[in-house]
Design brief:
Elements lengths: L1 H15 L3 H12 L24 E2 L21 E6 L11 E5 L12 E4 L32 E4 L18 H7 L3 E9 L2 E6 L1 E9 H14 L5 E7 L6 H9 L11 E2 L9 H7 L3 E5 L11 E3 L4 E3 L21 H6 L1 E5 L3 E6 L2 E6 L4 H4 L8 H12 L5 E4 L10 H10 L19 H18 L1
Parallel strand pairs: 5-6, 5-17, 6-9, 9-11, 11-12, 13-14, 14-17
Antiparallel strand pairs: 1-10, 2-3, 2-4, 6-7, 7-8, 15-16
Helix pairs in contact: 1-2, 1-11, 9-10
Bound molecules: 2-acetamido-2-deoxy-beta-D-glucopyranose (12 copies).
């Protein structure tokens, strides 16, 4: 009986999957070694959660050469500080004006060359900063935790026609368009860290090293941007598996090391402080972080909590799912991520695969209306009295208009979005996920009705 069902399922597949590799991949998942492979989306799994009873202050303030109450733009005694934030002098033409608190002293370094103007004499009146940080001048003075950022769910999983893909545009386009958190899943196969979706047979987006090399290059070319990485440790591997790669790609030069473990909401510095220090790659690992060994590879769940993943419920309740059992004080003291990727549950025999519901992106990634990202962000803000820090989305470039996810973030941030989106270079040539989504709905329907 079960054999028949699987045969049927594999027979149905070529009809809808235009891509032969895809068909083969799905087939191999269904009939691998003649048995059924059970798949679970890793982000619905749980692991060990770290809970700290006290906060540890790290001996060295590696987080930045900026001392004092750096880059607080408030108050009339602000001094004007000009800094040429040159990453190894690769972009010396770029210069920025940052306002810092009265007595703040910036210490120059080969990473960041900062000099106080007029020998540090406080300026009589505050000067308005015009250099954008993460896209807006207003953000320079804000704490890292006081900004809503768009996060690309499974950022590397860009593969035309694949049901397991989560994005249409690659990581460079994502960053150019304004995504500031990159989330992805890692798998260790043949001693190499790959970026795979659930299984390397289903979707393999290459090595972590290649991916981070691209991102590092982008970050060096954009010295005023803070980028956050959320690494999904599918295999619950020891953190040493990632640290070597981060060093090898050169990203380590840019990695932010927190002054405390763990960092509470109010402990985080301003964007301009991070930018001036050159330490503007924020690294989180979902499971198995060890901040004793690697203080900079931060444990995700002692710094933020997440709403339910991967929702198949379009009302997107703004409840705390992970870490479980968080007390109200800790809920308040940590950042939070709104998971807003709507999935279809592809459920055949004992295979359970969640795939993006691309047919509904115009609603899901929209600014307003039931089920929209905008509505979830509003609901969350009402419930928790502050907006989400991260908005995790699939196919970020689709929505109620192209770039609507950034409009939602801009509204949360009280800034104006220019609506210039998305991925100018790749427009036109790609498969529309909507049509693929419609097909998947049909296939999912067929498969489910058989089960
Ligand atoms: C930047 O400088 C550091 C240390 O001097 C060096 O290790 C790194 O390779 C340099 N990066 C580039 C892109 O030149
Ligand atoms: C400059 O930065 C490097 C690496 O980030 C650090 O090792 C060095 O001590 C810094 N130099 C000064 C003068 O702070
Ligand atoms: C750093 O600033 C000093 C003093 O203004 C200047 O002489 C030097 O050329 C600057 N270095 C870089 C790499 O911008
Ligand atoms: C930033 O902080 C202000 C003041 O507490 C608050 O009104 C605003 O909602 C916060 N914005 C974000 C995006 O956290
Ligand atoms: C791992 O090695 C095996 C045997 O050489 C090979 O068949 C497989 O494709 C490799 N896996 C990946 C993800 O490269
Ligand atoms: C990678 O993870 C495995 C499993 O936790 C561990 O045995 C191994 O030592 C790790 N490798 C490195 C380089 O840390
Ligand atoms: C921003 O961080 C500073 C310390 O770095 C803290 O004093 C301030 O309260 C924070 N602001 C907000 C809105 O959390
Ligand atoms: C974390 O790292 C420290 C220092 O390297 C080590 O002593 C400790 O055993 C590690 N903890 C775990 C759970 O592996
Ligand atoms: C979303 O797209 C579907 C199918 O194209 C359409 O029926 C629906 O009205 C759209 N919804 C919105 C809110 O634009
Ligand atoms: C937001 O709240 C409204 C009113 O309670 C509810 O109808 C809706 O389902 C919620 N979520 C979303 C994403 O619209
Ligand atoms: C967004 O852009 C794509 C082209 O990249 C286009 O096919 C699509 O219809 C656009 N509109 C929306 C609402 O996402
Ligand atoms: C939003 O920004 C405007 C200026 O652009 C300001 O007047 C207003 O007070 C801000 N609102 C909040 C809630 O911060």
């Amino acid at each position: 009986m079960r054999v028949n069902l699987l045969l049927l399922a594999t027979c149905m597949l070529p009809a809808w999957a235009a891509d032969e590799t895809e068909t083969t991949n799905i087939k191999s998942l269904l009939t691998l070694d003649g048995t059924v492979t059970s798949l679970n989306d890793p982000q619905t799994r749980t692991g060990d959660y770290i809970s700290y009873t006290s906060t540890r202050t790290l001996p060295t303030n590696h987080g930045g050469m900026v001392t004092g109450s750096a880059a607080s733009l408030m108050g009339s005694e602000s001094a004007v500080v000009t800094a040429s934030a040159s990453e190894n002098a690769t972009s010396t033409s770029d210069s920025m004006t940052v306002l810092t608190g009265g007595q703040t002293k910036l210490v120059g370094n080969n990473t960041v060359n900062a000099t106080t103007s007029a020998s540090g004499t406080p300026s009589p009146s505050p000067v308005v900063n015009t250099q954008p940080c993460n896209g807006w001048p207003e953000f320079c003075a804000r704490n890292y935790t006081n900004i809503t950022m768009v996060a690309a769910h499974n950022s590397p999983f860009v593969q035309k026609g694949s049901v397991a893909a989560n994005q249409e545009l690659d990581v460079e386009a994502q960053l150019n368009d304004g995504v500031r958190m990159l989330q992805f899943q890692t798998h260790i196969t043949n001693n190499t860290v790959y970026l795979c979706h659930t299984s390397c047979d289903l979707l393999n987006a290459g090595t972590l090293e290649d991916y981070l090399t691209i991102v590092t290059k982008w970050m060096r070319a954009h010295p005023y941007d803070v980028v956050t990485f959320l690494i999904g440790n599918y295999d619950y591997a020891a953190p040493g598996n990632f640290t070597g790669i981060i060093e090898k790609t050169g990203l380590m030069d840019l990695v932010y090391t927190p002054p405390k473990v763990p960092m509470a909401m109010h402990d985080w510095p301003t964007l301009s402080s991070m930018i001036l220090s050159g330490k503007r790659a924020v690294m989180f690992l979902d499971y198995q972080a060890n901040q004793t060994a690697y203080p900079w590879l931060m444990d995700e769940f002692s710094h933020m909590w997440e709403t339910p993943f991967s929702p198949t419920d379009p009302s997107f309740p703004c409840t705390v799912q992970r870490p479980p059992g968080l007390n109200p004080h800790d809920i308040n003291q940590r950042m939070y991520m709104a998971n807003h990727n709507l999935n279809l549950n592809l459920d055949v025999a004992n295979i359970n695969l969640l795939i993006p519901n691309t047919a509904l992106l115009n609603v899901t990634n929209g600014v307003e209306g039931a089920g929209s990202l905008g509505a979830m962000a509003e609901n969350c803000t009402t419930k928790w009295n502050r907006p989400p820090n991260f908005l995790l989305v699939d196919y970020y470039n689709y929505g109620s208009f192209n770039g609507s996810v950034f409009e939602v973030a801009a509204q949360m941030n009280n800034v104006t979005y220019d609506r210039k989106c998305c991925g100018a270079a790749s427009a036109g040539s790609s498969v529309r996920p909507q049509s693929l989504g419609a097909l998947m709905m049909v296939v999912a329907g067929i498969l489910m009705s058989m089960g």
